[in-house]
Design goal:
The protein is built from 7 helices and no strands. It has about 180 residues and is mainly α. This is Sigma-70 family RNA polymerase sigma factor.
């Protein structure tokens, strides 16, 4: 019985013999072509897996050596293409993330600039009350005591400041989402 016929019949012992006989040759072939230990190992393993999976399709008129190295060559090419596609996708995602980071920084900077400009346009007491509450974290009661105004006046100034800033943010949202 010849080797190909035995493989077609699913003879595990013959497959083991083929594996031990050709494993080193396939590995050396791929390593020589790619200079990559990883690709040589992967291709060699996948070659023998594919040989076993497609054993029923082997041609008894061609040498096993020829058929095995065809499998190895196509497997190697497939792995190289896959690796190149993965690298290309990684580069594209990195570039896209970098562009998004730039737009986020621009949008954030523009929002901060407009917010500071809006704060500067507020009446002095309202701006001071807002900064004491939101920046310094002071309570309404502490602000009222320090500025000698009522707590209700502090609440009113905070409400008006937030209303003014909310209007600014509403105007900026279409700009921000355009660049996102």
């Amino acid at each position: 019985m010849n080797t190909i016929a035995a493989l077609k019949d699913g003879d595990q012992l013959v497959f083991d013999q083929v594996f031990y006989q050709y494993h080193g040759n396939v590995y050396a072939y791929v390593l020589n072509k790619t200079n990559s230990l990883y690709l040589a190992e992967e291709t060699t393993q996948l070659t023998f897996i594919k040989l076993w999976q497609t054993r029923k399709n082997l041609n008894e008129e061609l040498s096993l050596f020829t058929q095995l190295f065809r499998i190895a060559r196509t497997t190697m090419i497939d792995l190289i293409r896959k690796q190149n596609n993965n690298e290309l996708h990684t580069r594209q995602l990195t570039a896209l993330n970098e562009r998004n980071d730039v737009w986020e920084k621009v949008s954030e900077r523009e929002l901060n600039e407009r917010m500071h400009a809006s704060l500067k346009n507020m009446p002095d007491v309202r701006r001071k009350v807002f900064e004491m509450s939101r920046v310094k974290g002071m309570s309404y009661k502490a602000i009222a005591m320090e500025l000698s105004i009522s707590v209700k006046t502090v609440e009113s100034h905070i409400y008006q400041a937030i209303k003014q800033l909310r209007h600014l943010i509403t105007l900026l949202l279409p700009i921000i989402f355009t660049f996102s």
